[in-house]
Amino acid sequence: MQPASQPSAPTPDSRPAGAVGAGPAAPSAPGSPSGDNAAVGRRVSDGAAIPIIPDCCNLGITARILVPLNLGALLIAALTGTTASDMLVRALAIVAVLEPVAIASLLTLCGVRRLTTGRSYAVQWAAGLAVPVVLTLIACLIAVRYMAPELAGGAWLGWLVVRCLTAAAIAALIFEFFRLRTLSFAPSLTEARLQALQARIRPHFLFNSLNTVLGLMRGDPRRAEYTLENLADLFRVFMRDTRELVPLDEEVVTCQQYIAIEELRLGDRLQVNWLLDDMPGDALLPSLLLQPLIENAVHHGIEPRTEPGLMSVRIARAGDRVQVEILNPLSENPPTRSGNQMALSNVRERLMLLYDMEAELKTEAIDGQFRLQLAFPYRKERRRRDVRRHFNPYR
Amino acid sequence: MSDAISILIVDDEPVARSRLRELLADLSPDFPHRIVGEAANAPEALSQIDLYQPQVVLLDVQMPGMTGIELARHVSARAAASDTPRPMPLVIFITAFEEFAVEAFEVRAIDYLLKPVRAQRLLEALKRAVTRLPSDQIQAIDQLAKATNTRRRHLSVHERGRVILVPLEQVIYLKAELKYITVRTREREFLIEESLTSLEEEFVDRFVRIHRNALVARPSIAGFERVTPSGEDDAGDPYWQVVLRDVTERLPVSRRQWSTVKNLVT
Questions:
Q1: pTM above 0.80, yes or no
Q2: Within this chain, do residues A151 and A231 fall inside the same structural domain, yes or no?
Q3: Are the beta carbons of A336 and B64 separated by less than 8 Å?
Q4: Any idea of the CA torsion for A327, A331, A336, A339, to the nearest 10 degrees?
Q5: B interface mutation test: which of A202, A214, A269 has the most B CBs within 10 A?
Q6: A154/A223 same-domain check
């Protein structure tokens, strides 16, 4: 096996990438090594450096901005209008300007955010506020010039400034709201991370694996060696920051190393069918997103059975999404240990924090099988790393 | 090798079994023994215990289907039935987890080893085990089952050298007959060697005693009917009997039990 490319020591002050999306595009921060390993130490979110501009490429966040904005416009129209028809006219007038400006701002900010992430707060604020102000300016100028010159009246400059300042104020409020929202998530983020850590360093798994190694030591020393190597690799990953983004290839290797250990322990009972032909290996995902799901499937689908059971793992790309499907037999016996819902809810929470509405996790029981389906956006790393981990089960 | 202690290894993981075998081989100078069998699950273990009557059973706690504690409960239930004294093997539990209640172990009537097992610890446990009385084990396993809230979900039936596990929810009634207990399910009857009193205690939530010799599953009671015996001498008093779901036979309710049983009707 090739040496696993190790994440360089996390560089806490560099790469304050955004909560979502900015990961792949985050420019390499000055001062961090720019070798093969440089791409790894990326953080998905760092409480210390939350970007000022919210992630406007994210549907959930876009919806959270547009819906209140329009409701606000309607409210203003309702408060200022005198009759019902007057209200309607006012509402339409506001929305006619607001909507193009808001949508254009969001689209522009989506790009601007990627460019400014990692810069100083002043730059981020300036860039973030400039976008809606400039767009408002353009919209107002178009309105005055071509549509309703009488709107501005004499003091058109003052009229314009008021509009632009309003746009800036609304943008500032929105930025601050999302910054606080992310901050308020930070404790639960830490908590989720701790939970994940604790669940990962499962004493059960460690002791069971050590027992397996001891059992192999005399009869099959090579296999014992190989199992210890797998165990070492796995624990290195378990102890890594789970907010780190890793290529799918790497996460799958972790899953396969885990399965290799469990196969020794469970013998014929565990059979896994890997369907990875259409897997986009370069897709980025948070470290240890899949392994807990695989472990869950082994724990619930295979361990309680006395008969052999077949599990299947299919990973494929569908357009701009990565789809994962895990099937395992439903077991009529209750599992021997509890605390399982934890794995699923843990992953769900992490997906929510990372992808908001763009990821989904579904589970269902059909035909005596438990099916888990996971889909998340396909984002890949710009530069592929040369050193990749490989898993060779036949070593 | 008549004084060699006979040992049965029960663990669902093949590698764990081979590890125990290796450790036991290392210990054979200090502790003469012979391994009489290996089992990967509860039914296998039960029939091997029947077949080889091992003196010591090394029993993994976490197994699919039926835990080691439940399995031990099956063994002790049969050994406890007073009419059929079967030798109770001495049980040493093996577990990877330290989480279950240890009160039962504090009486030192049973022992447990943590995985990965050390040879020295195994030797101590074996030496201690053979000094114990089987009757203490029966009690201790009952205690352990209570402390860990382990209930049997099956009754184990030994039939022509193999073990059948009858799920408890299929049992309609249990009836003591001579030295056996008849277990009635919808399809057929089985015979088990256990004591009706301890079954009643263990499954008090599910079964109700209707007669000195019979327990009936509450969900299987369809109703009661009053019968007047019409013998030639006309001496019989009228009595009640239970009408059961899924089977045609009816069971008499004793006068003594009627006062408690009739509460079920209302």
A1: no
A2: no
A3: yes
A4: 50
A5: A214
A6: no
